Amino acid sequence: xxxxxxxxxxxxxxxxxxxxxAYRNVHSFxxxxxxxxxxxxxxxxxxxxxxxxxxxxGFKSHTTDWHKVMDDKSIDIVDICVPNNYHAEIAIAxxxxxxxxxxxxxxxxxxxxxxxxxxxxxxxxxxxxxxxNYRRVPAITLAKKLIDEGRLGRIFHYRANFLQDWTISxxxxxxxxxxxxxxVKAAGSGVTGDLLAHCIDTAMWQxxxxxxxxxxxxxxxxxxxxxxxxxxxxxxxxxACTFFCRFKNGSLGNFESTRYARxxxxxxxxxxxxxxxxxxxxxxxxxxxSYFDHRDxxxxxxxxxxxxxxxxxxxxxxxWVPGLQIGYGExxxxxxxxxxxxxxxDKPASPTFREALATQYVCDAVLVSAKNGKWENxxx
Amino acid sequence: xxxxxxxxxxxxxxxxxxxxxAYRNVHSFxxxxxxxxxxxxxxxxxxxxxxxxxxxxGFKSHTTDWHKVMDDKSIDIVDICVPNNYHAEIAIAxxxxxxxxxxxxxxxxxxxxxxxxxxxxxxxxxxxxxxxNYRRVPAITLAKKLIDEGRLGRIFHYRANFLQDWTISxxxxxxxxxxxxxxVKAAGSGVTGDLLAHCIDTAMWQxxxxxxxxxxxxxxxxxxxxxxxxxxxxxxxxxACTFFCRFKNGSLGNFESTRYARxxxxxxxxxxxxxxxxxxxxxxxxxxxSYFDHRDxxxxxxxxxxxxxxxxxxxxxxxWVPGLQIGYGExxxxxxxxxxxxxxxDKPASPTFREALATQYVCDAVLVSAKNGKWENxxx
Amino acid sequence: xxxxxxxxxxxxxxxxxxxxxAYRNVHSFxxxxxxxxxxxxxxxxxxxxxxxxxxxxGFKSHTTDWHKVMDDKSIDIVDICVPNNYHAEIAIAxxxxxxxxxxxxxxxxxxxxxxxxxxxxxxxxxxxxxxxNYRRVPAITLAKKLIDEGRLGRIFHYRANFLQDWTISxxxxxxxxxxxxxxVKAAGSGVTGDLLAHCIDTAMWQxxxxxxxxxxxxxxxxxxxxxxxxxxxxxxxxxACTFFCRFKNGSLGNFESTRYARxxxxxxxxxxxxxxxxxxxxxxxxxxxSYFDHRDxxxxxxxxxxxxxxxxxxxxxxxWVPGLQIGYGExxxxxxxxxxxxxxxDKPASPTFREALATQYVCDAVLVSAKNGKWENxxx
Amino acid sequence: xxxxxxxxxxxxxxxxxxxxxAYRNVHSFxxxxxxxxxxxxxxxxxxxxxxxxxxxxGFKSHTTDWHKVMDDKSIDIVDICVPNNYHAEIAIAxxxxxxxxxxxxxxxxxxxxxxxxxxxxxxxxxxxxxxxNYRRVPAITLAKKLIDEGRLGRIFHYRANFLQDWTISxxxxxxxxxxxxxxVKAAGSGVTGDLLAHCIDTAMWQxxxxxxxxxxxxxxxxxxxxxxxxxxxxxxxxxACTFFCRFKNGSLGNFESTRYARxxxxxxxxxxxxxxxxxxxxxxxxxxxSYFDHRDxxxxxxxxxxxxxxxxxxxxxxxWVPGLQIGYGExxxxxxxxxxxxxxxDKPASPTFREALATQYVCDAVLVSAKNGKWENxxx
Lengths: 380, 380, 380, 380
Fold this sequence. Notes:
The structure is a homotetramer. Chain A is of the alpha/beta class. In chain A, 34% of the residues lie in helices and 26% in strands. The first copy, chain A, contains eleven helices and 17 strands. The first copy, chain A, has a nine-stranded mixed beta sheet with strand order 16-15-14-13-7-12-11-8-17. In chain A, strands 3-2-1-4-5-6 form a six-stranded parallel beta sheet, with helices on both faces. A two-stranded antiparallel ribbon of chain A has the order 9-10. The mean pLDDT of chain A is 97. The B-D interface holds B 142, 145-146, 151, 289, 291, 293, 296, 298-307, 310, 312-313 and D 142, 145-146, 151, 288-289, 291, 293, 296, 298-307, 310, 312-313. Strand 16 of chain B pairs antiparallel with strand 16 of chain D.
């Protein structure tokens, strides 16, 4: 029988939902993992909302004070799903309370803000993970495996985009529950921390550290109504960010993110070009991996569209049958299964707070470079 | 607060899993539906397996005798996920016991076997549904909506395929838990009842009744080991079936299914061509709908790839955010939400046993036509 | 130096243009072929049109009387690009005059009409070819090569469609220069002879003879204005035709053609499924071949999109550089190069009149089956 | 009747072939243009090769001395298809001789080298064109039209790539006829002048001037055998170049080119994102244009794949019938038709030498920026 672990989630927004779903279902699909999470407490700003969320998802209790979650000795895991500006304070408190911690990405608003978080979890010796969930899309996990097997040979290029179009209208506000990602105080940055952080985490996981970057940012809409203050205020975030970079392994990177690419909702794509083979992927069809191998017989050489659903594909043996897809929500189930498995085996799942700090440093360098208009080395 | 309904599931195979998952999660995502299912009992052949399944999915009890499920007065819904040859007996018993019934497709092995099932549920007055889950793929639901709005004009053609490749090896056996679909005694037919039934149900839902059919079937592998008997026995099912037909509305149909189409795992596709517009879909990328409208300005006229993930798309407002997909499993959640909503509003969700009987009649006509080599009218 | 061959083309319509273009350019791209065609005479119905066509394409002369082409002893090749009802008479006369003959497909309106054509060319001993140009799309030629190499193993299925949408409007007339394909007297049949003939020729080239067929046809628009008579007359052609069949090698075929598939202009597709591998193709992206090989390492197994432009691909070494496509017109250049090469080497290019007669017999059987509503054996 | 114009082509390499093909065929397809080119003289390095080329393409004469082409008073058009380092000298001589001039791109190795060329043609008052042939891909011409109609609204982003993989092997030499593009003396630069020049020309044609750039280049293979000298020599060109930029209209650009992107032969792609609509294109399927319009009814909103083959599409009325593609070679026919039409109407076709100089200035700025590691303004 799996051992039960009590979970307290801070934040009942979009991420609160994806994480709750993962805790509810991980045991049914990954029953070999020796822990079964129990949704103990949901914590959120509004009493009424928190109560409804608890009823909907099966939490045993709810609260509007996150300190109570820390004080609850029965709680084993604290899961942080609040805006970025609250990550550090809550995570450090949770570490001090000896809780295991899963924290939504990005780890914090800046590297400087994140460093004490890393120190806190390492000092406390608690299991910790930052929720870069895309690593657990089966196609991306497969890509990592193919790269690690050396199939690509020497790497020349890494290219990634994360394109959205939801803030084109000047009527979209900043601040508040739904649009805190547009408020620099809450988010720390715009597309850099929200979207490029995903691209960077995936890229460095697959292709190693980024040494230096050169970036350009733009804020197309200069002022927006702030929901929290009720006033039209300057927009402090980057609406769009493009950067190129050099990886430590000598390959070149090209990254772009924007929320002004009409027609794209969440077009996270990457492509990696090696001496022998290349790999491509696209979040809009997340179960497919593109693969080209130059060593194929030239008469039948071409980009392969791998429909990553067979039972021997990463994670897929836990779901349905070949040909049948899973969705976005399932990536959080995988992440949680890996986290719990890591706890069981005392082999921490990646990325830990420390590993995620590297992504934070790249984001920092990107924003500095964009400001200064020149190359910036990434803090090691 | 949602009222709780106790559920007994018969069968812990692939479909037992998809249905269990739906019951576990429907309330979290469709909390506006005024019922919350509770997994009361799982029933299956092997005690050990049933117990493990109960633990994994959170059933309160398990049994190996399906009659006990009927006798349990606390059970509100009986859900039938066993091989086709057991559908009729169990469904009729459940109807007599006054249970609501969800039955996996096809309703039975033949129309003749299905007819008393229809009579039983109608006599008992119990809510009933056949699990043609693909109707609840958001893209297919959207297609139905677009057709019903009259956007296509007069319909000329309907085309559907369901292609797989998992039985090409002669070493795949028949019978047993994993391969009962290859045993004609359990399944009734091969691809006709298993795969074409889905195509036919979707087609008639979208395009109205099929009047007459002309079919060809083939059994490529003539003998297979039977897991149940341990002997090599003749294969009684159709490995492949192709038919063309005439719909009552004057349009022509072309349907094909096989388990010998190398490279396709579950390639359920359909296309419908109307006077003004056409629609296409493909299960391997189930969240996309193809749409062509001849009335578009000719300079920008082309097939549109609709990424069916926005909040105003069928069912999608209940899941994540635009651009993020759901998977196969979620279609059963939608189906269950609709079923429960139908119960609440006393407007039965489709297809009921009676509606599904029409698909059974088409399958019957297809198999007769293939045998006789001539057109066959479909029983009305 | 290449030897010059004088060419007389009968017909200055769409096919007259594609053939003229081939003659003009074959030597520049296939200079290893030891013949260089010279455009000697264009023959067509209207003096003024013929003259303009001659000027435009560089013909030395023009005429409105095709017999003059036969009488011109300097002419080596007669090329027949007129409606189907004139093929037999002209081809037989050309054979008697000792000309080499290229005839547009289909060979004739019926097998009965085509038989004396075959006899005439064989008696005369003249080189002859029917213009099933799609065999010379590099991707299709490659497909044939892969099949002949045995890469697919035992064949289970062959599937082909040819979908158009240009006759949906009831205002499209029949008869005349532009729409003789809708007039049964000129065309012999509708989509069967015009479009399915291509599918059938390709299919039998790749997969061997078709033994028997079972078909359905429909004429959606029953009456159309006849340009030749000025009257509204019954439509005698098939607007749509679907058939399934059995190949001699035991595989199953499924073919469909229509001019009522909104959104498709010339969607000629085929797919062939073998034990080990499958191949697919689509005229709308004619330079790509899809290939799936089950023997690939399962971690990187998927449909390959082969961009057939490299120099080692069929015909492509004669054109540009890798990555750069050719179009539809170039297929006629290939066909002509093969024809001339066959003449030089005394190894006739395919399909000869005799080979094309087999396609005619399949078309005949399809139309008979559609009329009788039962299976029909194909004349051997 | 069309007036004949005599043509002298300098260079019988890849571009000599594409241009010869255009001159041979333009009148057959664009007979409304009042000029019919005559292939008078081909000029190239090797006597034997030049003679064979003349025979193959129908030139009346050949020479190995380009000055003779200038001296031939019968020649109306000089067409320059030699390596970049010869463009200036030949073009200036041709201008002085009063010839019309078509010059392959890039105009020269640098802006400084190109400036006197512009002055020469303007002083001489001769028609002049730089062969940025991709502008005449029908899908790209259509894109320009849609943008000019204002369909996209305010532009936010422009993104273009040109990816190849043909120089990954260290055994590929530099210099000589086949690989002069790798020799900095002949080419001036690597992918910047060869490939990005196309992207930049298209981008500025569609989206207006580029104001400033920031670039990174890399030479992955540092030494290659030089065919001309027989020695292993340092490689002076850029193997890869990435840059981002700001357009004068406030939109952001992101450009990348490389010859080390395994799996891509000539993957020229662009995407432009506007407030209301976006457009995308890809050379590997050059007859398709992607278009997304946010103003579409949300239920049927999606990326449209426009198959640019209908008769009302740019240039396509001159070719075949809807659904049937043209290839790469045809873009040079279009370019020539436009050039001749411009001569007839005294409205010069674009891009003239002066217009192409702007692209040269962007390339210059890109290379300077890459060297200096900071933003560079583009010469206006």
